[in-house]
Amino acid sequence: MSDALSPQFKPAAKSVAPHKLLGPKGKLLGTAKAPMTDAQALEALRLMMLGRAFDTKCFSLQRQGKIGTFAPLHGQEASIVGSAMALNPESDWVVPQYRETPALLRQGYPLEQIILYRQGHPHGGFVPDGIKVLQFQISLAAQIPHAVGLAWGMQLQQQDGVSVAYFGDGSSSEGDFHESCNLAGVLKAPVIFLLQNNQWAISTPREIQSAASDLAARAPGYGFPGISVDGNDLFAVYQATAEAVTRARAGKGPTLIECHTYRMWAHTTADDPSRYVDEKEEKRWGTRDPIDRVQRYLADSGNWSDDKAKAWEAEIADEIQSAFDNAAKVPPAGPEALYEHVFETPTSTLNRQRAAHLQEQ
Ligand SMILES: Cc1ncc(C[n+]2csc(CCOP(=O)(O)OP(=O)(O)O)c2C)c(N)n1
């Protein structure tokens, strides 16, 4: 007997080529139309450039012992910013993993808070009132059920907000991801699963992360669409997310968006990718840079130039520096901070530990 299935059994989900609009040289492909205005593309570009400049600064400061472990976003700017640009910060929630700094900034979260978080200051864990973001999540995929819960809550309260859960290819192997998809599908919760497939989960390559040919193809198994986009194409990510947002607001339920992108730098400051990344693969992805293609696109309409690049780089460096200066003004946390913000009413054991600890100071 043959080991292949009979031809009448059609596969339930097939792999599809990622959707693209803007080519690597900054030209719209075929008959594609830009889904955002030049003013929006400039807003997105600014966030993308800021994210990358923040990476460089934080890597250097981590090496000087001035901040803790840092996860860069280099290479993933279009996935992060293109999706965030499709949201309304007044009504929609960003639920990040740990690389999505510009998405938080677009929601109005202050850069100083991100710096304090990276410095291990307890104030960095605080989200100002009215800013619709959750904090970075280090425990893989634990943020995904939170995003579904937020979406379900908004649905029950008849608000028209949506939530976006960001996570990686590695996180999509966690039970939390699958349970979240199942619940969100059943509830038709207004949530978008934004899977950033950057081809690596630290040193585990995508090929051995999952036997699925296409991570987006998992969604139909939970009763909602999964779409695949070029994650280095700002326009494709924006268009896909905007449509998913419209679907969610209309009560049609979740969408899974798989952004095919590439982590150009180390996983974190604690990683050495030269031990496992193939240089040729890295070079190939280097030719598909997400920032470069938006700059080229804007240059064609006279909205970008070398002078403008220089001016923006200087302004962004100042903006980052002033956020560090503001963060430095926040008084350092004392040992008592270890005992705060955990329980509304601390337990007697915790109070005893606190008293003993403070006596030793
Ligand atoms: C529950 C859990 N298991 C393991 C880890 C250790 N860990 C940290 S990052 C990471 C890889 C994550 O890969 P992916 O989800 O693809 O995201 P990426 O870092 O590539 O953006 C692992 C295994 C963790 N933080 N949490």
Q: Care to describe what's here?
A:
This protein has helices at residues 38-63, 77-84, 101-106, 111-118, 143-156, 175-187, 206-209, 234-249, 279-286, 290-300, 306-329, 348-360; strands at 93-95, 163-168, 191-197, 200-201, 204-205, 226-230, 255-260. The protein is globular and about 75 Å long. A five-stranded parallel sheet has the order 1-2-3-7-6, sandwiched between helices. The chain is built from twelve helices and seven strands. The protein has two domains: 38-264 and 277-330, 3-Layer(aba) Sandwich (Rossmann fold); 333-361, no CATH class. With 361 residues, the chain is α/β, with parallel strands linked by helices. The model has no long low-confidence stretch (mean pLDDT 96). 42% of the residues lie in helices and 9% in strands. α1 (38-63) runs antiparallel to α10, α2 runs parallel beside α8 (234-249) and α4 crosses α11 (306-329). The protein starts with 37 loop residues before the first helix and ends with a helix. Thiamine diphosphate (TPP) binds at residues 99, 138-140, 167-171, 198, 200-202, 263, 267.
CATH topology term of the largest domain: Rossmann fold
Order of helices and strands: HHEHHHEHEEEHEHEHHHH
Indicate the low-confidence ranges by residue numbers.
none
CATH architecture of the largest domain: 3-Layer(aba) Sandwich
Backbone CA Rg: 22 Å
Instruction: Write out the CATH superfamily name of the largest domain.
Output: Thiamin diphosphate (ThDP)-binding fold, Pyr/PP domains
Total domain modules: 2
Round the mean pLDDT to the nearest integer and report it.
96
